[in-house]
Amino acid sequence: MSTIRHTTRLLRGSRLRPSSFRFTQTRPLTTTPKVDLEAPTAPIRQPPNANSVHFPGALNSQFTSTMSFHAPNATPSLPTYRIMDTNGEIIDTSHTPTMDAEGMLKMYTAMVKTSIMDMIMYDSQRQGRISFYMVSSGEEGVAVGSAAALNPEDVIFSQYREQGALMYRGFRLDEFMNQMFGNRLDYGKGRNMPIHYMSERLNVHSISSPLATQIPHAVGAAYGLKREGEGRVVVCYFGEGAASEGDFHAGLNIAATRSCPVVFICRNNGYAISTPSLEQYKGDGIASRGIGYGIETIRVDGNDIWAVHEVTKRAREIASKEQRPVLIEAMTYRISHHSTSDDSFAYRPREEVESWKRRDDPITRFRKYLENKGLWDSSKEEDLRKTVKKEVMNAFMAAEKERKPRVREMFGDTFKEETPVLKKQREELKRVVAEYPNEYDLDAFEDGKDGL
User: Fold this and answer.
1) Which residue of 102, 103, 267, 299 is most buried, as measured by CB atoms within 10 A?
2) What is the pLDDT along the chain (452 residues), one digit of tens a residue?
3) Can you cite a GO biological process for this protein (predicted)?
4) pTM above 0.85, yes or no
5) Would you say domain 3-27+74-401 falls under CATH 1.10.150.80?
């Protein structure tokens, strides 16, 4: 498939609009007063001789005597908002970035650090030193740009390509490495696959392997924050492949009907593992679904970190002040394979990937912007990459040397106190290990056999 054909398929006719920054609205953007969450709704009646439908299932639909089916291709595709072009030049002067130099360099450093960590961890999996990894190459702009627009107290539910968001928030390299090696310092106590990060300190919920399960969880958390009334919001990340799951539809519908303060961020990178977007859906991407559920929606150039930052900041404002959900569809491209278990060149040409890397890498685009501003140069780039690579390798080697969690940890954290059944299972395992010591080498685990 040619690059031109894929670009057309990925954006599905979407128009890049640098000077039209607005959400597709389902109602006026006005600040709403607090309401009683349990108050009954007003009765709906159909007035006599009305010229529009006023039924519970459809409000304000005009009556017509012309029978006409609405064809999907008759509706213009939603535009894609951008601020900065591929050369790092600002094209929407109404939203010229006002962030100080320190903030800009923090974003850029998080993007570069994520990229370098991705490369090292991908190679380490190939060496058999960790079991699994998922690279976020090409999607760093979505993760970092959105994270930079949030408040520290906002809650994040992510999928598995948001390491950039965690990196920006302050998730340390040792925390990344401890999780991927599943050692005794891992917050999940070695129970999850690699890349299933979590951080109570940073308000980041644990990543879950099953696709899209974080979406209804995020909505429930947002409803809880709504009841607290403190203005905090939930941000929920997922890919366009996850939007094919039932949890996506249930989550968005509940968020809309319960007016939950949640910002949904969909990374539409063109592929759900090996399934291209054109084979996943026939509608206008994922953004059109948000409108269908009555949610404020916008489509953004995901490789433009400034555009992502600006729309996320505005979306957060809507969710916090007006207590309702927002959907952002970030159009980007997955340069990496889906995971270390995937060879994407079996279903897409290598030339297509290389073309995207050359033409529109989000890190390169942002670097050009910083260079244009006089904030960056090749010497600083070399120093940063050299320093980051050393930091990543130091954290990697330290985590690799740590022991695994105590074996008894596999029985904990399900109930407040160990149940008789769990106690029986643990005692049985202890007996088997004692009976067959040569079959169970527990020296790599903290406290060894005593850890049972």
Assistant:
1) 299
2) 443 333 333 333 445 555 556 777 654 444 444 545 555 566 777 778 888 877 777 777 888 899 999 888 888 999 999 999 999 999 988 888 999 999 999 999 999 999 999 999 999 999 999 999 999 999 999 999 999 999 999 999 999 999 999 999 999 999 999 999 999 999 999 999 999 999 999 999 999 999 999 999 999 999 999 999 999 999 999 999 999 999 999 999 999 999 999 999 999 999 999 999 989 999 999 999 999 999 999 999 999 999 999 999 999 999 999 999 999 999 999 999 999 999 999 999 999 999 999 989 999 999 999 999 999 999 999 999 999 999 999 999 999 999 999 999 999 998 999 999 999 999 999 999 999 999 999 999 999 999 99
3) branched-chain amino acid catabolic process
4) yes
5) no
